[in-house]
Amino acid sequence: MLLEKALWIIAFTVVLLTSEVYDKNDELLKACLPFTSVTGNGTTNKMIDLNENSEKIQDLKCNTHRINGMKGFDENVLKAEIVNKIEECEGLCNNQKECRAFRYLLKNRVCFVYNSKQHIEDDISESGFYVKRCVLCYMNITKNVKGCDDEIESVWEDVSSLEKCEDNCIKSDNCRAVHFDGERCFKFTDEVKPYEKTGIDFSRKICEQYTD
Ligand SMILES: *[C@@H]1O[C@H](CO)[C@@H](O)[C@H](O)[C@H]1NC(C)=O
Ligand SMILES: *[C@@H]1O[C@H](CO)[C@@H](O)[C@H](O)[C@H]1NC(C)=O
């Protein structure tokens, strides 16, 4: 009996904690993400560019992550629709920037899209509850430094600007940094410690995670 009570208190605290983090993340998301849509099946990490609305090259990747035995709160439902597959339900979530979680009921194919990832235990055993996680990446330039030549992973030839070089790095999942010599873009996939070199510009990818 006592143990049961203790477990309830723990569960409640966890929900409170996650909701607090969520609210903070939500502020962050609002502050730096002027995007219009996130597309694709999140589990495969589809990407969108935020170039249009920012002077910085940025990239947002979202994916979904299942939490077993949970559901969202009724008051947080943005949308409820009948869809044929869980992938369609995920699509509804990914296409809505306010979406933070979704739930799919196999039995009647009802899809719930939530504006919060707050959740409680589900009484329907076969429901699938997924939260959306996003990572925002951008490039940070340091002028007149370069990475070590023996750490170069590959080279993009005939690159016209540092911006194009950074864009290549943003679009390449395993790219951690680049340096640009005026026509070639050198890619690094490991943590690099750049050193001074006049005429070469270095740019490191910085990624911030918005998770629970
Ligand atoms: C996303 O796609 C993958 C691979 O096609 C699939 O296994 C997964 O079930 C999809 N996501 C969801 C939430 O169903
Ligand atoms: C960007 O790079 C500069 C060095 O050029 C560094 O001082 C700064 O902390 C970096 N910014 C971030 C957000 O890491």
From TrEMBL:
Domain of life: Eukaryota
Ranges of residues in domain Apple: 62-134, 137-207
Keyword set includes Signal: yes
Keywords: Signal
Lipid biosynthesis listed as a keyword: no
Gene3D superfamilies referenced in this protein's UniProt entry, alphabetically: Hepatocyte Growth Factor
Residues spanning the signal sequence: 1-23
Pfam families listed in its UniProt record: PAN_1
Name the record gives this protein: Apple domain-containing protein
Organism whose genome encodes this protein: Mytilus edulis
